[in-house]
Amino acid sequence: MKHSFLYGAVLKLTREDTAESIERHFALMKENGMDTVVIWPAFFWWEEKKEGYPFNTGRLVLDLAQKQGIRVVMELAGQLPTMEYLPDFEMKDDYYCIDEKGIKKLKHNSFGVLNYFHPEVHKLICGHFADAARAYKDHPALLAYDVFNETAFNSYDAYTLAEFRLWLKEKYGTVEHLNDVWEHCYTDFEQVSFAPWMWMSVMPAADFAAFRKASVGIILKRWCAVIREIDDKHPLWADNIGSMICNGQGVFERPQEDFLLKEAVDEIGMSFYPKQISGTQPPHTRWNTFDAFYAASGRQGFYVAEMQTHIQAMFNPTTCVRPYELKQWCYEAVAGGAKGLIYWMWRPFTKGLQTAGRGLVDYKGRSTPRLAFAAKFGAEMQEIGAVKPVRAKVGILFDGVCQDLQTYYTKCYKLDQDIYMSSLRGAYKALHDVGVRADIIKLEEINSYPLLILSNHIVIGRETAKALLRYVEKGGVLVCDGKIGLVDEWSMLNDMLPGGELNAAMGQEFIDTDYEQLDFDCEGVSYRGYYGRDLMALTDGEALGYFADGTPAVVRKRFGKGEVISVNTYLWYGYKQAGNDANRFAEMLIGRYDLRDVTVEGALRVRVSEREDARFAFVFNYTDTEQTGRLAGLGFDEDVTVAPHDVLVIKKEK
C-alpha cells in the first residue's frame, strides 16, 4: 500500500536547457523515486517572442514532466524579480524598497525584494501571476504554485507607510486609543510616521515590527486572490527559511512570521540549510526547527521546500554534505511533520555566486552518493508516507508580541535582543537533552498539555491571564521563569507583579531585581542561576527553594486542581547561553509529573510519529560508534542497535 508523500527536487532552468536535457533530468528523477519537480523560474523572458510568450517553455516542461509521470510545482516568486514577475524592460527606479535613511535598497548581492506595496509593482505582479495561472492551470501535470519562496519585505516608503496607518487604524480603532498607548498627540492616523521614538513607549517600534511581520501575509493574500480567481483548483504554497523560533535575531529584521504565513496560503514550506560555513546545526536545533514549523502549519504538516544537498559554492568546502547527514536531516524532517520533501537542488549552479554549488547530481548530470541515498529514502517513504508527530506532554508557549516587545525593551541598551526566543530554545534543549520532547504551542492549544512552560513571557494581558488561570484550575502545571507578565499587550506595566492577573496563581509578590547571588537550592539540590534574579515576597505560595540570601528562588502555588511553579531567575535562557544545569531541573519536572512517553537508553534519541494505522519510531544515533539500547513506550518494547550516524525506523501496527 502506498502512502502519499510528495518527493522531488528543484530544477533551476537556464537559457542553455533543451527539451532533450530537461527530459533526461526528469527521467533520472523518476528512476530515483521522485514524483515531483519544482520549476524555477516559471516565466521565461528569454524565449522567442511568439504567441504564448513567456510561457511556452513552461508548457513544454509540463509536457515533458507528464511524459515521465512527474508532477510540477511552478515557483512564481523566488528572489530574482528580473527573471520572474518584473523583467528588466518593465523595471523603474522607484520600484525598489527604501531603507530607514530613505535610500533605495540596492546592495544585496544575492536577491532583490521590490516594493510590493507600490501600486504599479502590485499591478505588474498580479498581472504576471494571472497570466501564469491562465497558461498552466489546465495542464494535467501541474500540482501547485509556489507563490512566494523565502518571503521577505521591509520598506520605509510612502506606500508602505500608508499600509501601516491602515493596519494601526484596524488595531486601535481610534486615534485616541493610539495616543494613549503610544504617548503621542495625533489628531488623525494620517499623521503617523516611521519615527521609532521609544522613550515614553516602545509601542511605535513594536507595532511597526508587528506590521512588518503581518505585511508578508497582507501581500500574499492579495497575490493569492488574483491566482484563485483564475485557478481555484491548484493549491498555493509559500515558504520561509527554517523556523522563526530557531533562526536567531537576524530573521526579525527580514521579517519572518511562520504562523501568519499559514493564514495566507494553502500549504507552507521551509528552506532548510543546517550546514553553513559557521558549522552544522546540532540535532536539538534541527528537531526544534521542525517542531516549531509543524506548530505553524496548524499541525497539518508542511513541506521542506528546499533541503540542502551539497556545498554552497566552489570556495565553501566545509559546507560539503555527507550522505549520512542528508539521511539524518530527511528523517528528522519526516518525524517532525514534513509531508513532502524537495531537494535544493537537482543539479549544481552553472552561473552566479553559487557556481559549482548544490546538487544531487554532479555538473555532468551523473549520480552522486547523495542521489544514491535519495533513491533509497524515496523507496522507504513510499511505505511510510506522511506521518504526524505524536503530541508531546510538554508545551512551550510562544507569543509573537513577547518577541516584539522584548526586542525593543533591550535594543537601546545594547542588550541581547533575542532573550525571549533564546529562552524558548533553552527550554526545548534542556528537555531534549534528557530525552523528552516538547511542542512549541500557541495559547489556544494549552489545554492539550499536562505541563506548560512560560519563559520570559513578559506580556500577559487580561485574556491571556484568564486562559492560563483556567488551565491551572483544571489541573494543568505551569512552570515560569525569568520575567513573567510584567506588561499587558499595550506595553503598560501590570498592576500586580509578577504575572498581571495571573498573579492570583503565582503565590508571590515582586519586590526588586538583582544580578548577584543567582545560584539557588531547590528541595536539597543546588542549581546555577543566570543573568539576573527577581526578589520576591511570598504571599500564599510555598517556597521550594531559596537563594543564598534567603529570598524565595522556586515557589509553588496550588490553584484549583493544578499548580504554578515559578523560578525567579533566568533558568532556560541560562541553559541556552551558558549551559547551566537547567537540564537537571528538567529531570526533576519529568519525574514529578510523569512526562515521559517513549524512551530509549544510552546515547540514542527517539521520536515517534504516526498515521491512522501505524506508529513509527525514528531512532537516531548521532555518535561515532554503534549504540544499543532498550526502546520502550507508545507501543514499542524492544532492544535496538543503530550504526554510527545512522537512523533506524521501526514500525508498529496500531
What does this structure look like?
The protein has 654 residues and is α/β, with parallel strands linked by helices. It is 31% helix and 23% strand. Strands 13-12-14-15-22-21-20-17-18 form a 9-stranded mixed β-sheet, with helices on both faces. Helix 1 packs parallel to helix 2, helix 6 runs parallel beside helix 7 and helix 6 packs across helix 11. The chain is globular, with a radius of gyration of 26 Å. The mean pLDDT is 96.
Could you name the key traits of this structure?
alpha/beta, 8-stranded parallel β-barrel, globular, 9-stranded mixed sheet
Summarize this entry quickly.
The chain is about 30% helix and about 25% strand. It is an alpha/beta fold.
Query: How many strand units?
Result: 28
Mean pLDDT: 96
Strand residues, percent: 15-25%
Percent helix range:
25-40%
Flag low-confidence runs: none
Give the SSE layout.
Layout: E1 6-12, H1 19-31, E2 36-40, H2 56-68, E3 71-75, H3 119-136, E4 142-148, H4 158-172, H5 175-182, H6 203-230, E5 236-241, H7 258-264, E6 267-272, E7 275-276, E8 279-280, H8 283-296, E9 302-308, H9 323-335, E10 338-344, H10 369-384, E11 388-389, E12 394-397, H11 400-411, H12 419-433, E13 438-441, E14 451-455, H13 462-473, E15 477-481, E16 508-514, E17 520-522, E18 525-527, E19 533-538, E20 542-547, E21 552-559, E22 562-567, H14 571-578, H15 582-593, E23 599-600, E24 605-610, E25 614-620, E26 627-633, E27 636-642, E28 647-653
Parallel strand pairs: 1-2, 1-10, 2-3, 3-4, 4-5, 5-6, 6-9, 9-10, 12-13, 12-14, 14-15, 15-22
Antiparallel strand pairs: 7-8, 11-24, 16-19, 17-18, 17-20, 20-21, 21-22, 23-26, 24-25, 25-28, 26-27
